[in-house]
Amino acid sequence: MLIATWNVNSIKVRIGHLLDWLKHVEPDVVCLQELKLTTELFPFDEVGELGYEGAVYGQPGYNGVAILSRLPIEEVIEGFPGEEGQSRVIEAVIEGLHVFSVYAPNGQAPDSDKFKFKQRFYRALREHMDGLGKSSEPMALCGDFNIAPDDRDVWDPVRLKGEIGFHPAEHEWLKHLTDWGLHDSLRLVDDRGGLFSWWDYRGGGFAKDHGMRIDQIWVSDALKDAVKKAWIDLEPRGLDKPSDHTPVLCELDW
After folding, report:
1. Active-site residue, selected from the candidate residues 28, 144, 153, 184
2. pLDDT (0 to 100) of residue 132
3. C-alpha span between 39 and 44 (Å, rounded)
4. N- to C-terminal Cα separation, the chain
5. Would residue 108 be called left, alpha or beta, if left means φ above 0 and alpha means ψ between -120 and 50 degrees?
6. Domain count, the chain
């Protein structure tokens, strides 16, 4: 099973990029974030022509998450209390695997109310996981977590320490997931630094490779040994009018 996650930063703007990518890469499951449209406006017909069923949880103009699958989607759950009325989490069971598409809050600034919301979100996400089951069950949390896990995951760890996405408090919140029994799939197979999934539009971030790895696929203990390959696909970030994020993929022997 090939799983991918991609913050498309507006499905309307990036639909051509998404469809071309689906045709070329042919992932089995794709988790999308920042749809920026309501559920009924999602291009179900276009992705359906490529063989994908869609579970979509949209919102006008902001946020929005989806799960696309070439395999049957079951037991769809839209949202959870920690998103506080925003469309940030959708879940589904696919071939016995519990899949999440997650769009965590950005946090804006460490002294802001939005940073406090981000903290509440991560606390609630951990509580939600506790209520779902144990890490001995197959689960994959995929999405834009808006936190780079460690020094390898940012272009300048000294300069960025304490900034949004690389703040010590955020690393504590991310630890809620690892303590539960989740593993960063990329780091199970690749320990290199400089592997990024997001580059700021401003200041030529992509050209300079001033990036951060804030998009991840986390797998439960049950899937740890099933991860055969994990990587970041840089090609979509170099397209005309790209998302500021690029797809992250994980191949499971599942």
Report:
1. 144
2. 87
3. 9
4. 6
5. left
6. 1
Task: Answer yes or no: are the C-beta atoms of 103 and 10 closer than 8 Å.
Answer: no
**103-113 per-position pLDDT tens digit:** 999 999 999 99
Q: Chain-centre distance of CA 230, in angstroms?
A: 14
Q: Which of 57, 103, 122, 153 is catalytic?
A: 103
The residue behind tokens 């406090």 is: 116
Residue 133 confidence class, pLDDT cut points 50, 70, 90: confident
State the residue range of the domain holding 69. Answer: 2-252
pLDDT recorded at residue 244: 98
Distance CA 164, CA 174 (A): 13
Q: Strands 227-232 and 139-144, how do they pair? A: unpaired
Q: How confident is the model at residue 166 (pLDDT cuts 50, 70, 90)?
A: very high
CB–CB of 115/122 below 8 Å? no
52 is catalytic: no
pLDDT of residue 54: 98
**Other Cβ atoms closer than 10 A to 130:** 11
pLDDT of residue 210: 98
CATH code, 97: 3.60.10.10
Let me know if 103 is a catalytic residue. yes
Task: State percent of the chain over pLDDT 90.
Answer: 98
Phi, psi of 73 (to 5 degrees): -100, 130
